[in-house]
Amino acid sequence: MKHLFSIVALASILLVSTKISAQDDKSKRPSPPAAVSKHLASGANVSINYSQPSIKGRVIGVSIEPKNGEVWRTGANDATIFETDKAITVNGKTLPAGKYSLFALVNDGTWTIIFNKTWKQWGAYDYKMKDDVLRINASVAKAASFGEKMTFTINPEDSVHLLWGDNDVSFDLK
Question: Whole-structure pTM over 0.90, yes or no?
Answer without folding.
Answer: no
